[in-house]
Amino acid sequence: MLPRLAKSSLIQQVRGVSAIANAEPSGPSISTSIPGPKSKALKQEMDKVHQTTSVRFHVDYEKSFGNYVVDADGNALLDVYTQISSLPLGYNHPDLVKVASQPHLITSLVSRPALGSFPRTDFADGISHALTSIAPKGLKAVQTMLCGTSANENAIKTAFIWYQAQRRGGLGPDALHLESCMNQQKPGTPNLSVMGFEGAFHGRSLCMLSVTRSKPIHKVDIPAFDWPIAKFPRYKYPLDQNVAYNKKQDQECLADVEAKISEWKRRDNDVAAIIVEPIQAEGGDHYGSPAFFQGLRDITSKHGIVFIVDEVQTGGGATGDIWAHDHWNLSSPPDMVTFSKKLLTGGYFYGEHLRVKEAYRIYNTWMGDPTKLLLLEKAVEVIKRDGLIEQSREVGAEFQKRLGELQASSGGKLDQARGRGTFAAVDFPSGSLRDKFVDLAISNGLHCGGCGDRSLRFRPSLVYTKKHLDLTFDLLDKTLKGL
Amino acid sequence: MLPRLAKSSLIQQVRGVSAIANAEPSGPSISTSIPGPKSKALKQEMDKVHQTTSVRFHVDYEKSFGNYVVDADGNALLDVYTQISSLPLGYNHPDLVKVASQPHLITSLVSRPALGSFPRTDFADGISHALTSIAPKGLKAVQTMLCGTSANENAIKTAFIWYQAQRRGGLGPDALHLESCMNQQKPGTPNLSVMGFEGAFHGRSLCMLSVTRSKPIHKVDIPAFDWPIAKFPRYKYPLDQNVAYNKKQDQECLADVEAKISEWKRRDNDVAAIIVEPIQAEGGDHYGSPAFFQGLRDITSKHGIVFIVDEVQTGGGATGDIWAHDHWNLSSPPDMVTFSKKLLTGGYFYGEHLRVKEAYRIYNTWMGDPTKLLLLEKAVEVIKRDGLIEQSREVGAEFQKRLGELQASSGGKLDQARGRGTFAAVDFPSGSLRDKFVDLAISNGLHCGGCGDRSLRFRPSLVYTKKHLDLTFDLLDKTLKGL
User: Counting CB atoms within 10 angstroms of each CB, which of A443, B114, B197, B226 has the fewest?
Assistant: First the structure.
């Protein structure tokens, strides 16, 4: 392995006094409505050249720090939404800012490799530190991609390639397959399907939308593959008071999975893979039990179906484990685990049996982005050094307790408080009341967000501590009273 | 608009003496076989954690500069392949290295926005300088995405959304559409298709593979949408000696387009969009004439079909125009133009009629990467300042002339020399001979690459000058003689 070029401490020193914020405020400070006049003016400018329909407010990223996002008007909000759960260490973490000064990051940025063909000399080293060191149990091989959607797309392609190879007795494509695929005829272009679940979200490409059932606005007007969708458990909370009901949910859903595998087989459209989130996040924070997922593992093993766990939103530590599926105690590991968001780079881990033997089948120009891998390498180091997963577990336990208490005192406005670690949600009676609550919370200095039809979700980063928790619940309480 | 934070000249000064190369060698220097012993050792390391089937050699990106790529073993090659045509200004361009020092780039890197909801204060400014300033005639609105594939996917989604709105008299989705799409039933999930062309390459997601016909290994074992593929012209060269033959190609291909539009309409699977490359690059550098593309524009206008030009490989100036479709002189602009690679960020320009009115329909967490936009802003400034498109046109004219002469003197080894600007190709009698030539050229210090079944392609960056051209043809001549 070649040595890394030394960091220049002079660069860091200069950077340290630059215009990037380097400390958290002691609390939120709000001086305008949100969006304020500057955010509104920027949105008008932006609308001339780019869609703005989903823009909430513009952010001053130079002034944001830690758990606090600062908007264009100088309002500082405690952020428990963190760019849709995609910041592992909050804003402008000093260790990441330092990495940004290093020559190997700069060259990664300005001389971007086609890494499937011409990787950087430090690529394997980066993969080992950033990803192999946090690999899910049983899955050492990894492939980087640019985002969660491309991770899922390529995981599914890998599953199809494996499934077809199994049909050929383990062999690669023969002349007949290679010829027929150019006309999209069998056997080269097979009928194969992927099973998703009601409420699932796996991305917005046409393939991923075919297994996504989060919201109509995500899917309407877009053609889709005719792939099976099975039921996903809908538990009642608290769990310990609804054991029988919830167990029946698991059984019904697993029976539905089995039935649809058979149905699609009869329709000559075999299920090659099942893709599932540990917690259906965009769809409304719906949880599955370890027993449910163990059932899925057993069914997929029995039928020779690739079992893909989509940890794009759950991976990275906020659930109190680096992977949300860690606590399932499966009899054997999932075949693939996909990731993105908090892990900065997209990608997937896979079992060695799925490694594609032929070149250029899982391939594209960039196959990820080495700048993200270098940042992740440092982020993982910080997460381990500072015990941030343990912190999420501890602060998360307190979060769950407090959320339950808030619900109990809400006079029926809140329901179904649930979560793992700091990854948490609670339901409102309606979507409109939830939306009103989010707006009011933002104006009170707490940046939270919705998911599903009427859920409020919490997605703080890993630098969220007890002090931020206390402030969060003060602001939630205040907002609830003002609703 | 808020002012950008000032650059620190001290940072730049420090950076200038760092370990990043800042000058080109006078010519190639080769001291080992390629891949050499260090590249081979790195590949072995990499293979433990990541697929390596397509890896040619490892690159020392800190030592690479301008038109020269330096491999792990210290070999310096003149690079006319440039990371599969994705470097606009070669390696480690000093102006881009400077941008990497700026606080707004660093915060973009370490505090990445969910830019559809919380954009940076300088986002509209960056869009205007980086993209609007080079917008294709008639298309001012733009959407950034992460890569060429996601650009094409979202362009196609936009086309579907528009096509369905037209069917509803310009209206958004109603309750029936919203409800039915969750079960993937009509009318919410329509039967709609996209037309591609024989030899096309638009990316490797399942949707894009359905309109891709580059090579069997890209498509085999992957399920696909049943979408129409029309014939694409296959011209004979030189063009001025094959006018009648080539004109007939255009006519036959356009008739095929018309016939397949009708056929898919009869099958209740309307063609909502046609996607086409100006030059089919991965498929083997196949060109269409201005008359062919004018015919496509006329047909799509007549049928109310969205006309998408995929400039992922051609966009950015190497053809002697910023957009390869600039010289078609269409009666009206394309409806959409997609881009990536040399433009550093993915994305697409679109006509205002295609702007999606409802929020969260064209959306995802990141929707691009602001670091790439900031780099592109500087790259566009350099391209204009240094007259690099004009340079590509001039050097390109000489390149075409010399390639024709090389072919004439090749004793039948080369055929079909063709190109625009420095974007050029030539054919070998077989794929195996082409592959042998590429290997030998690399060992002689010229990094070129293949495309299609038996073509050699040239993809220098925009900093390629007459001096590099002379060296290129010396090396081509030497390699051809050694073949």
Answer: B226
Across B97-120, average pLDDT: 95
The answer to whether A144 is annotated as binding is no
**Tokens coding B220:** 């085999």
CA distance B189 to B180: 7
Residues with Cβ < 8 Å from B342, sequence gap 6 or more? B85, B86, B87, B88, B315, B316, B317, B318, B461, B462
pLDDT of residue A10 exceeding 70, the answer is: no
The position carrying tokens 């990497």 is: B100
Is A310 annotated as catalytic? yes
Contact A118 B1 (CB under 8 A): no
* CB of B97 less than 8 A from some CB of A: yes
Q: pLDDT tens across A347-362, in order?
A: 999 999 999 999 999 9
Helices assigned H by DSSP within B370-410: 370-385, 388-408
DSSP 3-state of B275:
strand
Determine, for residues B147 and A142 on separate chains, whether the beta-carbon distance falls below 8 Å: no
**Which residues are CB-contacts of B41 (< 8 A; sequence separation ≥ 6)?**
none
Predicted ipTM of the assembly: 0.95
Whether B298 is catalytic is: no
Asked whether residue B398 carries a pLDDT value surpassing 90, the answer given is yes
B37-46+54-93+388-482: CATH topology: Aspartate Aminotransferase, domain 1 (3.90.1150)
Given the candidates 3.30.70.3340, 3.90.1150.30, 3.40.640.10, 3.40.50.2300, the CATH classification of the domain at A103-384 is: 3.40.640.10
Encoding tokens for residue A414?
């809140």
Taking an 8 Å cut-off on Cβ atoms, the answer to whether B117 and A55 are in contact is yes
pLDDT in tens, B248-302: 999 999 999 999 999 999 999 999 999 999 999 999 999 999 999 999 999 999 9
- CA-only gyration radius of chain B, Å: 23
What radius of gyration, in Å, describes the C-alpha atoms of chain A?
23
Q: Can you give the pLDDT at residue B52? A: 96
Residue from B56, B110, B125 whose CB has the most chain A CBs within 10 Å, to mutate: B110
A206: nearest Cα among B215, B72, B225? B225
Look at residues A249, A309, A247 and name the one whose alpha carbon lies nearest to residue A278: A309
